C-alpha cells in the first residue's frame, strides 16, 4: 500500500507541475509548486487517513455492540419461549 500511495503522491505532484505550465501558457499567470507543497499534500493525506481510520473503528465498534445486543435479545426471546 505504501508504494502505491507514494507513487500516487508523486503522480499528483507531477500533474500539478504540468498543469501549472499549461496555466502559465494560457493565462500568463504563475502557480508555483515547491517541495513544501508536496510535503503539505502528504500531511493532508495522513490527516485524512487518520480521520477515516477513526471513523471506521467507531463504525466497527457500533456494529459489534449491535450484534451483541441482537445476540442477547435472541437468547432472552429463546428462553422466554421455553
UniProtKB/TrEMBL annotation:
<dbReference type="InterPro" id="IPR024317">
    <property type="entry name" value="Dynein_heavy_chain_D4_dom"/>
</dbReference>
<feature type="domain" description="Dynein heavy chain AAA module D4">
    <location>
        <begin position="2"/>
        <end position="48"/>
    </location>
</feature>
<protein>
    <recommendedName>
        <fullName>Dynein heavy chain AAA module D4 domain-containing protein</fullName>
    </recommendedName>
</protein>
<dbReference type="InterPro" id="IPR026983">
    <property type="entry name" value="DHC"/>
</dbReference>
<comment type="similarity">
    <text>Belongs to the dynein heavy chain family.</text>
</comment>
<dbReference type="Pfam" id="PF12780">
    <property type="entry name" value="AAA_8"/>
</dbReference>
